[in-house]
Every structure is written in C-alpha cells, then in structure tokens.
C-alpha cells in the first residue's frame, strides 16, 4: 500500500490549521480553475490539479476523516486537550454561599429598621394627643349687630387613641365663661387605672336675643323731564352720471393650420443575444441573495434557489474576509454572490 499524497501540502496549509483556514485555502487554489473554464485557457496550470484539490478538501474538511488521516500519517501531531469541566458540587456550594449572604443581609436590615419604626410611631401618637387636647376648648362670640352676646359651652372631647398604649384616656371637659375670660381652658388628666369610666359632657346650649328693628321710609327721588330737540334735515347733492363709450368688437380670424406629424422611422433590427453558457451553480441547501455589490452590506436583488445556473464575468473582490464574484443570470440580471455558495458546473 503506497503512501497517500500530503493533502496539507496540496492545500498549502500547516497540519495544525483549523477548518476555516482549510476552507479558505481550498477556495483560493480552486479559483484559477474556475476562471480558466470561463476564459477557455489552453495552457497548463502549474501546481496541484483540480482533482487533487477536490480530494484533499474532501478528506480534511471532514473531522472524522481528518482525524484518521492524522493518526496514520501524522502521529506526532499534538491533539487538542479536552476541555476541563467544573464539577456540579462546586456550583451547588457557590449557590448556597450566595443565598446565605442574602439571608444574613436581609436580617441585618430588618433589625436596624424596626427600632426606628417604633420611635416614629410613638412620636406620631404623642403629636396626635396634643392636637386633640388643644382643639377641645372653643368659644363662640355673637355677631357685632346682636345686642346680646352668644354664650356657648364646648362639648367634651374624649382622647383615647392619642395617649400611650399603657394609659387609659379620660374625658376632658372645657367650659367657656364669656364675662371672665375669652380664652378656653383645656385640661387632660390621663390615668393608669383601668377602672376609670369616661363621663359624658352635657350638650352645648346657646341663647340668642335679637332686637326688632324699626322700619324707616325711603326717600323718593324727583323725576326729570326730557325736552325734545330740533333735527336739521340733510340737503341732497346731484351726482353726475358717466356717459357710455362705444367699444368696437374685433373680427374673428381663422386659426393657422396645424402641422402634419411625420410617421416615425421603422425600428432597426436588433442583434440576437448570444446563448447563455453557465459556468457555475448555487450549491447550498438554502437560497442565497443576489447582491448589487461585493459584500453583505449591499442591497438584495432577489433570492437564488439551489441549482440556479450562473455565468461568471471574471470580476471578483474581497469584502469582510470573504471572496465575492460577479455573475450573470439566464434572465439577464447581474449581481454578486459569495464564492462560498457557488460550485462549478460539471
């Protein structure tokens, strides 16, 4: 059994090259054969043959066949080391540690907030009790027009929710006496005895004495008499009327004759286009885009399904690290297709 040819040397790559480098080398070395088919070159191309390139690419592009080829002909080639995986128990221990930190932090935050909330609640309860006691006394005075002052007794105010939880609120009564003082007196006597019972205050009463006013007769204003005035009638003015002017009517003239259009010349016979000779075809499993420029950034002129025949124009350009070629379709459209998606017509 003879030794097979060095496929790495045929493609011009190192034995340690990856799949992308092998694919690029195959595309670059097979391009002269495709261009040669288009231009119908008769001279011999130096270097590897097209059959050798196809065989080398078929062996090296398949991972299983390349691994077997390397074991037989390149036993000293370093193999890639297996990827080290992290055990599952390490992930579990890390998750438990993070959960413990979150729980301890939440407990610490709660322990710092609870005393503050209690102090704020106590301040609110004390302020509410003070406001209720201050509003207990009220004195109502009679209006200035009333001859007798209005005497009102403020009702009793019960303060229960405003005091601390350990004390029982009692009834606070405030009575205003107009002759003695104009300011109410409020008293609040909290006690800790649970047997105290609130005492209801009597309802507020008021006595109003209003004098009867004596009606007076209103004065009558004198009525004025309006004297009529004389009006001067306007004088009439004679306005001269314009005289009519006779305008001659122009005589109608016949329009000039229109020019007669000449018949267009007969169309010249067009030369029939040459027959379509495909050089390549779409070889991918999915449809590809026909671009109006070399690169994926150009607009699409339509989708080309698998097996669409193309005729290469010989123009090519690199864009984004890939080779793009210009082709002509059977219907006359022209555009750019990636060289990776086309294969020569056999």
UniProtKB/TrEMBL annotation:
Transmembrane portions of the chain: 88-109
Source organism of this protein record: uncultured Thermomicrobiales bacterium
Classification via InterPro entries: DnaJ_domain (IPR001623), J_dom_sf (IPR036869)
Low complexity: compositionally biased ranges: 172-191
SUPFAM superfamilies in the record: Chaperone J-domain (SSF46565)
Compositional bias ranges of the Pro residues kind: 253-277
PROSITE patterns the UniProt entry points to: DNAJ_2 (PS50076)
Protein name as catalogued: J domain-containing protein
Keywords, ordered alphabetically: Membrane, Transmembrane, Transmembrane helix
Annotated region described as Disordered, given as residue ranges: 172-194, 249-277
Superkingdom, natural source: Bacteria
Domain J: 6-73
Keyword Transmembrane helix attributed: yes
């Amino acid at each position: 059994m003879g030794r097979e040819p060095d496929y790495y040397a045929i493609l011009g790559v190192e034995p340690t090259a990856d799949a992308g480098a092998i694919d690029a080398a195959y595309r670059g070395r097979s391009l002269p054969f495709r261009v040669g088919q288009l231009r119908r070159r008769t001279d011999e191309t130096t270097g590897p043959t097209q059959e050798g390139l196809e065989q080398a690419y078929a062996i090296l592009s398949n991972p299983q066949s390349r691994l077997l080829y390397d074991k037989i002909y390149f036993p000293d080639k370093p193999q890639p080391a297996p990827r080290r995986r992290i055990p599952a128990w390490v992930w579990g221990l890390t998750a438990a540690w993070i959960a413990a930190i979150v729980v301890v932090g939440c407990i610490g935050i709660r322990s710092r907030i609870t005393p503050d909330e209690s102090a704020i609640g106590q301040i609110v309860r004390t302020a509410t009790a003070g406001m209720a006691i201050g509003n207990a006394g009220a004195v109502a005075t009679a209006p200035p027009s009333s001859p007798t002052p209005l005497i009102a007794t403020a009702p009793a105010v019960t303060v229960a929710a405003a005091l601390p939880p350990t004390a029982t609120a009692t009834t606070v009564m405030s009575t205003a006496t107009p002759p003695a003082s104009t300011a109410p007196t409020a008293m609040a006597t909290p006690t800790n005895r649970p047997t105290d019972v609130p005492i209801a205050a009597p309802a507020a009463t008021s006595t109003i004495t209003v004098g009867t006013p004596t009606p007076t007769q209103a004065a009558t204003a004198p009525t004025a008499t309006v004297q009529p005035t004389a009006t001067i009638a306007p004088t009439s003015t004679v306005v001269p009327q314009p005289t009519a002017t006779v305008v001659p009517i122009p005589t109608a003239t016949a329009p000039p004759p229109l020019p007669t259009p000449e018949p267009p010349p007969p169309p010249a016979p067009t030369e029939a286009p040459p027959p379509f000779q495909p050089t390549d075809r779409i070889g991918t499993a999915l449809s590809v885009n026909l671009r109006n420029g070399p690169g994926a950034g150009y607009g699409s002129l339509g989708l080309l399904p698998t097996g669409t025949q193309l005729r290469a124009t010989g123009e090519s350009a690199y864009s984004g690290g890939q080779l793009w070629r210009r082709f002509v379709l059977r219907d006359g459209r022209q555009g750019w297709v990636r060289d990776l998606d086309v294969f020569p017509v056999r």
